[in-house]
Amino acid sequence: MTDTRTAPSEPPCIAFIGGGNMASAIIGGLAGRGHPASRIEVVEPWDAARDALRQRFRIEAQAQAGAQLARAQLVVWAVKPQTFKDAADAAAPHVAQALHLSVAAGIPTASIARWLGSERIVRAMPNTPALVGKGITGLFAAPQVDAAGRALVERVVATTGQFVWVDKEAQLDAVTALSGSGPAYVFLFLQAMQQAGQDMGLSAAQAYQLAVATFQGAAELAARSDEGPEVLRQRVTSKGGTTHAAITHMQEQRIPEHFVAAMRAAERRARELAEEFGATP
């Protein structure tokens, strides 16, 4: 059946339930690609957040879900996991025909489908670099999402950076551990590199600039190379040199093994959160 709520030439109407950082990142990305403000709806209960969205993007934002949501082709759920069910209860009567994109961590599609009465659901695990258009998002689509729905999600998510589809919903836990939580790992290493630089006589500003630029440059080099990280590492690790001394020390301290174990801990916690938040009837 053809959707008659909007003319084919019009951009889709996209509604956001929740107007925090991730919603702002996506809205900003859409605005940057020319998506009209008139085709965006936002439900955000906090006055200050609503005002900020209105001023920054010139969009309308409401405190509560209402009939204005009925025109949305896509609903982006950018709420905290613990408030998802209440938000779904309020919006469900108005969004029965929409495609749903959830960026709420830990809420499985089965729970979302039960709360909304729809199985046209895509789950997403973004990360905070989306705020500057450099994010990467893991995506999982329920079987009821067709190719057109997946394409719409891709267009929206691409405004914040890259994306990767996974075949099994459980794989989103691995995405959470790797890239969802990943920026914090980078910040931890940056902090350590800055401290080491200061200990060796550099100023805090100098050490931080060097550390950040090193991460940026190494990541870009890896992205442009056809070779894997082990080969790239070996090329800058001359035996008996300074890099070899540092890498040898890290390997002796089993840092790579501890790092893998840390991400497995994050994966386990993601599964636990899914069980906790998704258990609500």
What does this molecule look like?
This protein is α/β, with parallel strands linked by helices and 281 residues long. The protein is 50% helix and 13% strand. It has an eight-stranded mixed β-sheet with strand order 3-2-1-4-5-6-7-8, sandwiched between helices. α2 links the parallel β2 and β3. The radius of gyration is 22 Å and the shape is elongated. The two termini are 32 Å apart. 32% of the residues are buried.
List the helices and strands and how they pair.
Elements: E1 14-17, H1 21-32, E2 40-43, H2 47-57, E3 60-62, E4 74-77, H3 84-91, E5 99-102, H4 109-116, E6 121-125, E7 135-141, H5 147-157, E8 161-165, H6 171-180, H7 182-199, H8 204-224, H9 229-235, H10 242-252, H11 255-277
Parallel strand pairs: 1-2, 1-4, 2-3, 4-5, 5-6, 7-8
Antiparallel strand pairs: 6-7
Helix pairs in contact: 6-11, 7-8
How is this structure best summarized?
With about 280 residues, the protein is α/β, with parallel strands linked by helices.
Q: How are the strands of the largest sheet arranged?
A: 3-2-1-4-5-6-7-8
Strand content: 5-15%
- Helical percent range? 40-55%
How widely separated are the two ends? 32 Å
Task: Determine the structural class based on helices, strands and strand pairing.
Answer: alpha/beta
List keywords for this structure.
281 residues; alpha/beta; eight-stranded mixed sheet; 11 helices; elongated
